[in-house]
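Consider the following input, taken from an annotated entry for 3-keto-5-aminohexanoate cleavage protein (Mycolicibacterium goodii).
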Amino acid sequence: MNVLITVAPTGPIATKADNPYLPTTPAEIADAVEAGYRAGAAIAHIHLRDEHQRPTADLAIGRTVMDAVAERCPILIQMSTGVGLNVPFEDRARLIELAPPMATLNPCSMSFGSGQFLNPPEGVARLAAEMRDSGIKPELEIYDTGHLDACLRLRDAGLLVEPLQFSIVLGVQGGMAATADNLLTMVRRLPDGAVWQVIAIGRANRELTAIGLALGGNARAGLEDTLYLGKGELAQGSTPLVERAVRLARELGHQISTVDLARQTLGLPTPAEI
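Applying the prediction step yields:
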């Protein structure tokens, strides 16, 4: 089996006060992505920050980050339209104007820690249609069982093109707890042919990444999901976390997917076809 590794270097919540290795400027993010690519990642999950480290959907910052990444390596860019809890949905949705090959699609609103993550149904359907028409691959982030049902309704309405790509997110307060039982429940319900990975937030990251790989899933690694490499040991960037995911995959007998193979797996066009 070939495993797709995604590097997620920044995320919407942590700052350098939480981990000084967290990249927040365009150059820092691009450097972290390149290092993740060199370690084995084929996909980069990108969150944007402004000059004050706050989550932003600023298109100019997004273009700067995408260009900086492209100058450094050929990794597939997956732009987060989740951005941050305080950024309006319409501003977040405009990030697909940057025409990344991939972008997140969050199907439902939910409580998220002490805040609210708002994804109105009509806005989600419109964004799904715009991504379909633009040839942008949605990464379907599902935080609870009903989120999967919402994605399947979008598919049945013709708004999603198979193979569907899911990220099963576990450990966010307001969503599913980070347990093996919850992961198994979700994996059993995925549609045939789906491409998926587990995103385990915090302490359970290594354990559930390993279980997901053993079940035939892919893996995401980076400071967005955990700031620590081990108990009390801050990760010195996302690269050690990517390297750990690569080791786990190889110890299970898997191969690490190249960018070209990731394109094939996800049904993305080659650069010559774009």
